Fold:
Amino acid sequence: MSSQETLQYLFKDGVKITTGNQSRRYNLLAAKLISYIMKNCLGPKGLEKMHIDILGEVTLTKDGSTLLRKIDVEHPAAKMLIDASNAVDNEVGDGTISVVVLVGALIEKAEELLNIGISPAIIIDGYNKGLDLSLSRLQEIAQRYSNSDAAIMERLVSTCLKSKAIHWNGTQANMLSLSRIVVDAINSVTDFKTCEINVDDIKIEEKLGNTSEIQLIKGIVLDKTIDNSVMPRSIDHAKILLIDTDLDYERPKGNVDIEISSPDQIQLFQNYQYQTVLKKVKCIIESKANVVISRKGINDLAQTNLLKAGIISIRRVKENDLLWLRKATGAKIVVDLDDVEAVKSSLGLAREVYEKKVGEDKMVFIDECDDPKSVTILLRANSKKILDEYHRSILDAIAVSKDFIIRPLVVGGAGSVESSLVSYIRKRIVRNLKGKERLVLERFADALEEIPLTIAKNAGMNIMDAAVRLRTLSSIDNSAVNSARKPYWYGIDVFNRNVRKMFSDAIEPIIVKEQIMKTAIEVTNMLLRIDDVLISKPVMNAHTHSDGTTHSHAGGNKSHDHFDKLGKSQRPMHHYY
Structure:
């Protein structure tokens, strides 16, 4: 009797057991399949994926985390890889496809080692050693800059955007302009002394239009219109009042009965409401504000009196917009309009507030604020799906800049850093080792090399030619006498389909590379450690009624009816999900 059959006696009926190499290979295969799905998205020439959910909503993307969050997988090993990709995205904001590709390559090399009889423990130790060597080497070759160096940040943003869908719909000039837009937005909201940056201070507004019309507004754009058509369409040297109170008649909360015994009381009640609104408007006029933005309502009476005073108003603004306006203009949000001096001291400033038609809609621009701590990037594209992808691309670019500000060390992009690490491990480390440890480190280097080779493949290059040229140039690179110990960063030029020095064209923050390697090794080692899988068969089948009640019972997965104990009335029908 086999050990697996013996183990079966320990558990109840319905428990399925897979042990040893069989369970490990199933787990590795599931993770490899996820890697296979994402592999051809890597690099500037990577392809996009289309996802259609159960409601028919279509998502077009080449962003790894976006697609992996949407797909629904059942295998726990595949879920581990998806969680790892999401962790990289949450931590550094980029590198989600790279980590998936690297895990797939590490798993493939691990399977080769398992096939020749090398134990998982030795593979895990070798991978950990390869990680330590790589991280140590990254520290040696990384180049340090000032975290406020705008030129370096523009290159980082450009490198990030080149691998996104947003790159394809603009000229090189537009690409450089977009990089500057992102960097200018980041510089506006960042405290470089404390390295504090809140990416939420950059508002991203979307409107259908031409990609070349993407712009940065040193203030806030509201997807609203000025309340009254007779009000001015623009105000120069705006003094802005932000209020979180109604300029409207007070309405009792809840069910309140008002008893009126004579018509005069109706007139008194209406006069009281009028005077309440007029008192608030008078406070605004005396504060010398010329723009009023409210989170709540502004009725016709208030609008008329504001108009007479040359004041424009915008009502029912979202709470987030009000908070962004507070940071952009320096205004304070006012709740009580009783004290004129307090209101006056709460005003914010902007050089211009104006209404402008953007696409088919009108929007209000609060522009050229003095030292804004919140700004707006207005994205334009010819469809909502592309706008969504642009939005994701901009968020990745902002995240990359944030990584650099926190730790201003950069390495070469376009697969050059991986090529340099591969050559270093092969020439300086592996040749000094023997036996199984050497085999594992060689496979680790082969897995790292998968990143530049995948970029080359997606660009339509010959993989064998690219591999030979990369190894030759990187070998010369590591053999050269270089007092600074800096490599020449030979990588894949996908636009000219060539292997050349890439540091002047593509750089990446060291934080991203470190996070990718750490996460990839952690996930691979975890999968290699699993040797037994026990799956319990569910006894009951959970299902939900039309009234929202959820319960489970045997046979719940089959079509059936429920009756009460007397068998007279049928219970609500079931919905299966």
About this structure: The domain at 146-218+378-407 is CATH 3.30.260.10 (GROEL; domain 2). The chain has four domains: 3-144+411-532, 146-218+378-407, 222-251+261-371, 548-577. Residues 193 and 241 are 31 Å apart (CA to CA).
